[in-house]
Amino acid sequence: MIKRFAAMMMALTLCAAVFTGCSNAQETQAPETQTETETATVESESETEAALPDGMMYSYLTGEPVDTAIGTQRPFAIMINNIEDAIPQSGISQAEIMYECPVEYGITRLMCVFQDISNLDKVGSIRSARHYYVDLANDNDAIYVHFGWSPFAEERITNDGIKSVNGLFDNGTVFFRTDDKEAPHNVYTSKEGLEASLSWTDQTRDYPEGYEGRLVFNHTDVTPKEGQDAVKVTMPFTNNSPWFEYDPETGLYNRYQFGTAHIDAENNKQLAFKNLVIQYADRTVISEQDHQDFNLYGEGQGLYISDGKAVEITWKKADKNDKTRYYYADGTEVSLNQGKTYMACVPTDMSVTLE
Which residues belong to any copy of the DUF3048 domain (predicted)? Predict the structure, then answer.
């Protein structure tokens, strides 16, 4: 009888505890659910990162898994000739990020950012620096590579003490010329040349201690919500008239210019990108030679394009010591899909066409 009474009392105690717990859960349901959700999200992300094999990490430039020996190296940002006499270019399909900005007289120049140079046997042709490209290279903590410079780029690089790799001062180990194109469209470099440039310019490929990449990436593919259709994206650059066409089978944007597919001469592959990022910026002409200047500090409007959709974004960069970041209208930071990205500076008096 005593045992039965003790069992009944224990059961009543358990029921009361359960009832009290349920009551407390109902009274605090919102915060506990939020906390649990946030914890689950963190754990999910941690589990995703922990799932990478030993010796692998997520690339700061593409968000894709890469060998840690590669992912912890500063990239090279190489100025690429982009006039019709210089195409097809070499090696540029291997770049993790490619920039395009107008320079003088309506032409554009490319800057290709390479972190993995293990298979870079020939890249170019290489042309001179422009001062606003210095900001774009610095956004990625990249080693800036160019052959010559405008007066404004010379002033910026000299005054800021930037250790760029300039072909004008090459000791004969970094750049080489070919006989298939006329100068100045025949300057190239390679993996060996880029590696040789480090000792010549007294630079290291090690990131600064505690380095964190500026770009945010999704671990799984995410189509921009409430985006405008962007199956064809036409850039407003008049000299080379570039455009991109979305391929739903690959999920990539194939690039065209000068009326045809934009091809890498080294592998005969068409350039293709997972993401397109457009940065509208105020432009002024600052010389009689039509040198351009872009205001890349402060904030401005832009577009993030991926998976056949485009969404309006805002870019922000406080000053030359800051790095450019991108935000949605609600203030959350743009998270890119994993893969290669094309980035363009477009004058605010021009606009990209979406179809």
Answer: 61-198, 233-342
Positive or negative, the Cα torsion across 40, 51, 62, 69? positive
Residues 6+ apart with CB under 8 A from 51: none
| Burial group, residue 124, by CB count within 10 angstroms (0-12, 13-18, 19+) | buried
Which tokens hold the place of 16?
Answer: 């009361």
Phi, psi of 55 (to 5 degrees): 85, 10
Q: Give how far Cα 270 sits from Cα of 123, 265, 348, Å.
A: 15, 9, 29
Question: For the chain, give me the number of helices (H) and strands (E)?
Answer: 6, 28
Return d(Cα 45, Cα 68) in angstroms, integer: 19
Model confidence band, residue 39 (pLDDT cutoffs 50, 70, 90): very low
Question: Which residue from 248, 245, 223, 250 is spatially nearest to 233, judged by alpha carbons?
Answer: 245
| Statement: residue 38 has pLDDT above 90 | no
Cβ atoms of 73 and 205 closer than 8 Å: yes
Q: Is the pLDDT of residue 15 over 70?
A: no
From 55, 86, 85, select the one nearest 71 (Cα to Cα).
Answer: 55
Helix (H) or strand (E) holding 65: strand 65-67
Distance CA 166, CA 186 (A): 15
Burial letters 90-112, b for 16+ CB under 10 A, else e: bbbbbbbbbbbbbbeeebbbbbb
Please state, as a whole number, how many other Cβ atoms lie within 10 Å of the Cβ of residue 152.
18
Which helix H or strand E contains 205, and what residues bound it? none
- Reduced to 3 states (helix: H, G, I; strand: E, B; else coil), residue 106 is helix
Q: CA of 287: how far to CAs of 152, 226, 309, in Å?
A: 10, 42, 38
Cα–Cα distance for residue pair 261/242, rounded to 1 Å: 9
- What's the rounded Cα separation, in Å, for the pair 135 and 114? 16
Question: pTM for the full model?
Answer: 0.85
